[in-house]
Amino acid sequence: MSQRAVPGFRVRRSGPLALLQDAGRFGVRHLGVTQGGPADLHGWAWANHLVGNSWGATALEITFGGIELVAERDLTLAVAGADLGATRDGEALPGWQSVAIREGQVLAFTQPINGLRAYLAVAGGFSAEPVLGSVACVVREGLGGHDGLGHTLAEGDLLRVGEGGGRGGDVRSAPPTERPDYRQTARLALLPGAQIGGFTGRSLFDAFNAVWRVDDRADRMGVRLTGPRLRCRIESLISEGIGLGAVQVPPDGQPIVLLNDRQTIGGYPRLGALTPLAASRLAQCLPGQEVCLAAVSRERALADYRRFRAVFAGVV
C-alpha cells in the first residue's frame, strides 16, 4: 500500500458484483494478463475527481446494486455513474457530488434505476496491496481487489481507505452536461479497423445504420450485440492482440464488443474498436437497450479523449 490505510467501510451485505478498480493493469498483456480497471471510465473518473483524488485512485465499482456498507469512520465520498438507488441511513443519497457520511451510518445501493454500474469514491482513495502494479480486480484471473486474490466483496469484508478519507471541504458537483441519461439510445463512436474492408457492402451499411440491441450475454469481458447478420469475406486469421473496445464478428454475424476483462488475443475479424468513452457508455447499458454504431476518425476520437482527460488534469 502506498500510504497508511485505515478502516473505511465494513460490508454488511455484499450484492452480486462489487469490485475495487484503479485505472487498470498495464504492461502485462504479454503474460496473458488482461487490463481490468473501470468498465465506465467516465463515471469512475468523475467519482474520484469529486472527492479530490488524483487520476488512478482506487474506487469501488458496483454492478446492479444490492450492497450495504457500514462506515467505520467519518468519510467524504461521491457516487457517480449509474443511479442504483443509493441511500444513506435510508435517505436518498445525491449522485455526482461530494457528500459526507458519519461513522456508523449505512450506505446502501438497491437496484438499477438509470444505468448499470455505479462508482463509489472516498477522499484519499480505497487502499489495497497492488498485484502486478495494480489494485484492479479481475475475478477470472484471481488478481487484485480488496484481498489481492480477485474476490468479489463478501459479508464482513473490510474496505480500507487512505488516511485522507475523512477530509471535508466544499461540496463539489459535476456539471449537468457530464451526467448521462443512460436510458437513452447510445451512439457509440467506432474507429474502423484493418479488417473492415473484408466485410460485404451490405454488412457495412447495416453495421452503421441498423439499431443494435444489447444481449443478456454481457459482462466485464464483453457485450454481445444482436441485429442484422454481418458477413465477412475473411475466412481465417492469425490470432492477434485485442484492445479495449474491439468489435469482433464471429461466424454467427453478431458483433461482440470486448471490454476491460477481455482475453488478450483473438482471431475473429473486427469492424474496428469503440473509443474508450464509447466503451464506457456501452458498459452502462442494460440488456435489451438499443445502441447505434458511428464511424469516427482517429483525429476526432483523440481530440475527444484529450478534452475528457484535461478536466481531471486540472486544465479547463
Summarize, please.
It comes from Halomonas heilongjiangensis. With 316 residues, this protein is α+β, with helices and mostly antiparallel strands. The chain has four helices and 21 strands.
Tell me, briefly, the overall form.
globular
- Structural domains: how many: 2
| Low-confidence blocks of residues | none
Work out the helicity level: 10-25%
User: What is the average per-residue confidence, as pLDDT, rounded to a whole number?
Assistant: 95
- Strand count: 21
Give, in order, the helices and strands: EEHEEEEEEEEEEEHEEEEEEEHEH
**Quaternary state, please?**
single chain
Q: Assess the beta-strand content as a share of residues.
A: 25-35%
Domain Carboxyltransferase: 30-312
InterPro entries: CT_A_B (IPR003778), Cyclophilin-like_dom_sf (IPR029000), PxpC (IPR052708)
Keywords: ATP-binding, Hydrolase, Nucleotide-binding
Protein name: Allophanate hydrolase
Describe this structure in words.
The strands form 4 sheets. Strands 7-6-9-4-1-12-11 form a 7-stranded antiparallel beta sheet, with no helix packed on it. Strands 13-20-17-18-15-14-21 form a 7-stranded mixed barrel. It folds into 2 domains: 5-178, no CATH class; 186-312, Beta Barrel (Cyclophilin), CATH 2.40.100. It is α+β, with helices and mostly antiparallel strands. The chain is 13% helix and 32% strand. It has helices at 41-50, 201-209, 276-282, 298-312, and strands at 5-13, 17-21, 59-63, 67-71, 75-83, 87-88, 91-92, 98-101, 106-109, 114-122, 126-127, 158-162, 186-192, 212-218, 222-226, 240-241, 246-248, 256-258, 265-266, 270-274, 290-295. The chain has 4 helices and 21 strands.
